[in-house]
């Protein structure tokens, strides 16, 4: 997982576009915009991360940095 | 066989009630975990593994189950026999997971 790739998606895509890309990646189709990542799995992780951060920013009225910090905390918790 | 959704609440019970168990640890943010889902379902339906219980565990919300297998990355697979951990690995390779399951089947 690469944070700059998630940041780029947050800054350039809407949640709707990201949801569509999520479906496309799951169905082994090519999304309509570039998603960085070594493979489809990492690309999908970046899409999941961007969706989570955008939702979190909207639901909790926080900035990108705060939402990103909470997202990376979620990730750390899952594997520690 | 259907995949069992387990949590910290029932993980030990499932291990106790099933001699052979394979666990897929996942998280909602993990793309490779999501992409592995149909492969795991296919493995669970394989007659060769009819005597193995297939479990999905959310690593983020089940810390005890996660620590029991020593999860280091996701997706993470662990095979248990008679309640004891036999092997665990972070991988997205279906062949590798299949070989892990064969060790306990």
How would you explain this protein's 3D organization?
Chain B: Keywords: Disulfide bond. Chain B: InterPro entries: Thioredoxin-like_sf, Thioredoxin_domain. Chain B: This is Thioredoxin. The complex is a heterodimer of chains A (80) and B (105). Chain A has 80 residues and is mostly helical. Helix content of chain A is 74%, strand content 0%. Chain B is of the alpha/beta class. Chain B has one domain: Glutaredoxin (3-Layer(aba) Sandwich), CATH 3.40.30.10. Helix content of chain B is 36%, strand content 28%. Chain B has a 5-stranded mixed sheet, sandwiched between helices. In chain B, a hairpin with a 2-residue loop joins strand 4 and strand 5. Chain B is globular, with a radius of gyration of 12 Å. In chain B, 41% of the residues are buried. The mean pLDDT of chain B is 97.
Give me the count of strands of chain B.
5
Q: How much is the radius of gyration of chain A in Å?
A: 12 Å
Please, what is the oligomeric state?
heterodimer
CATH level-3 fold name of chain B: Glutaredoxin
Mean pLDDT of chain A: 97
Order of adjacent strands in the largest pleated sheet of chain B? 1-3-2-4-5
Helix content of chain A: over 70%
**What is the CA–CA distance across the termini of chain A?**
16 Å
How many structural domains are formed by the residues of chain A? 1
- Count of structural domains of chain B: 1
């Amino acid at each position: 997982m690469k944070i700059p790739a998630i940041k780029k998606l947050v800054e350039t895509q809407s949640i709707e576009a990201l949801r569509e890309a999520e479906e496309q990646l799951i169905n082994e189709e090519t999304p309509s915009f570039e998603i960085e990542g070594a493979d489809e799995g990492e690309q999908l992780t970046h899409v999941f991360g961007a969706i989570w951060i955008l939702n979190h920013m909207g639901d909790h009225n926080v900035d990108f940095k705060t939402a990103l910090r909470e997202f990376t905390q979620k990730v750390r918790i899952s594997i520690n | 066989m259907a995949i069992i959704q387990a949590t910290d609440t029932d993980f030990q019970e499932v291990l106790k009630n099933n001699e052979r168990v394979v666990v897929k640890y996942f998280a909602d943010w993990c793309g490779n975990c999501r992409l592995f889902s149909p492969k795991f379902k296919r493995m669970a339906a394989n007659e060769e593994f009819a005597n193995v219980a297939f479990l999905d565990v959310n690593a983020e919300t089940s810390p005890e189950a996660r620590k029991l297998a020593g999860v280091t990355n996701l997706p993470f697979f662990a095979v248990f026999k008679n309640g004891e951990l036999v092997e665990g690995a972070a991988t997205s390779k279906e062949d590798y997971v299949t070989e892990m399951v064969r060790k306990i089947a």
